[in-house]
Amino acid sequence: MNSKVCVDASFVLKLVLPEKYSDTVHLIWSEWIEKKIYIYAPYLLLYETHSVIRNKVHRKELTLEEGGIAAEVLMEQEINFYHTPTTVKMAWDFAGQYNRPTLYDAFYLAIAKELESEFWTADQKLYNSISHEITWVRSVFDD
């Protein structure tokens, strides 16, 4: 395993919300912490994850208190937020190459590529669309 990984919002949200595959994510995350694997993401992860949590509060899937706790626990995670001058260009190129309508997913791919790390996601649609071409993409759905 590499000494670093890049994770997306779908993966990290499973640490703080009770969802399908949350147990798997907790096991993987614990292993990374134990092995001192550096975990990276774009700053975008903060906006995406907190927006999802807030939306769940708004839809009454979580109470205000539960949402606040989830947001606090998320902020306590050992995530290194990463951005370089080439990240945006690489994300733009990935979005074009893989016909992505936005740059959100492409930012995670760009960072993983820059860091020469695995990219971990819990977004099955994203995983299915790129895993056949990108050998360093992993998901909670992997065997």
List the helices and strands and how they pair.
Blueprint: E1 4-7, H1 9-16, H2 22-34, E2 38-41, H3 44-58, H4 64-75, E3 79-81, H5 87-97, H6 104-115, E4 118-121, H7 124-130, E5 137-139
Parallel strand pairs: 1-2, 1-4, 2-3, 4-5
Helix pairs in contact: 1-2, 1-3, 1-4, 3-4, 5-6
Provide structural commentary.
The chain is an alpha/beta fold. The protein has a single domain (4-139), classed as 5'-nuclease (Rossmann fold), CATH 3.40.50.1010. The protein has helices at 9-16, 22-34, 44-58, 64-75, 87-97, 104-115, 124-130; strands at 4-7, 38-41, 79-81, 118-121, 137-139. The protein has a five-stranded parallel β-sheet. The chain starts with a strand and ends with a strand.
Question: What's the gist of this structure?
Answer:
The chain has helices at residues 9-16, 22-34, 44-58, 64-75, 87-97, 104-115, 124-130, and strands at residues 4-7, 38-41, 79-81, 118-121, 137-139.
